[in-house]
Every structure is written in C-alpha cells, then in structure tokens.
Amino acid sequence: MLRLYCDSIASVYTMPSAFCILSLGHHCHSAKYPQLLSRARGQGTFCAIDICKASVRDKLILQARDNGVILGGCGDLSIRFRPALIFKEHHVHMFLNVFSDLLAAHK
C-alpha cells in the first residue's frame, strides 16, 4: 500500500505537462498585464510571480481564496503557488482561469 502511495506521488512530480502549462500561464499573464505582474519564475511545483504593490497582492490572494484557490504571499510583492500533492493538469487550467479573471478585474 505504501509503495502504491509513493508511486502515485512520484507520478505527480514527474508530470511535466501540468507544470509547463502553469509556468507558461504565469509568463503569459506577465505579458498581458505588465502593469500588474512581473518576474514570473519557477520550476516544477515552485512558482512565483511579483505583483505591482503589496496592497494589490493581498487583495488578489484574498479574492483567489474566495474563488477556491489558495495562494501565499512571500516577501513584499510575491505570490507563491504551492499546489497540493494531488495536483493534476486539469487543476492548472482551473487555477489559470480563476487567476485570469482576477487579473482582468484589476485591469
């Protein structure tokens, strides 16, 4: 049973398509909303992006939470994305849709 669980977790972290989509999504958002976002970065499950002001970042984090997405603030301006171990490709699309809507509302 433990072996099956460990293999399942390992498959999540070796699923490059989900993380490539997430990273590409962050970079696309940076290009689309340069007045709000900068310095999209990350690899694997560790992704972050900077927001123009701390107050905007805090508001985005709260609004994301209200829409079922948990993000974390880090430092003065960054949002960190830390998915759960059950994170799959369809979750990436759900997250990017919610994040796109929030950014569009701040435009």
Outline: globular
Indicate the structural class. alpha+beta
| Average pLDDT reading | 78
Task: Give the spatial strand order of the biggest sheet.
Answer: 1-2-4-3
The whole-angstrom Rg is: 14 Å
User: How many β-strand stretches?
Assistant: 4
Strand content: 15-25%
Which superfamily, in CATH terms, is the homologous superfamily? Aspartate Aminotransferase, domain 1
CATH top-level class? Alpha Beta
Q: What is the CATH fold-level name?
A: Aspartate Aminotransferase, domain 1
Measured distance between first and last alpha carbons: 49 Å
User: In CATH terms, what is the architecture?
Assistant: Alpha-Beta Complex
- Profile the largest sheet: 4 strands, antiparallel
Helical content, roughly? Answer: 55-70%
How many alpha or pi helices?
Answer: 4
List keywords for this structure.
4 helices; disordered N terminus; 107 residues; globular; four-stranded antiparallel beta sheet; Aspartate Aminotransferase, domain 1
Describe this structure in words.
- This protein is α+β, with helices and mostly antiparallel strands.
- 56% of the residues lie in helices and 19% in strands.
- The protein has 4 helices and 4 strands, in the order H-H-E-E-H-E-E-H.
- The chain has a 4-stranded antiparallel β-sheet with strand order 1-2-4-3.
- The chain is globular, with a radius of gyration of 14 Å.
- The termini are far apart.
- Mean pLDDT is 78; it is low at 1-10.
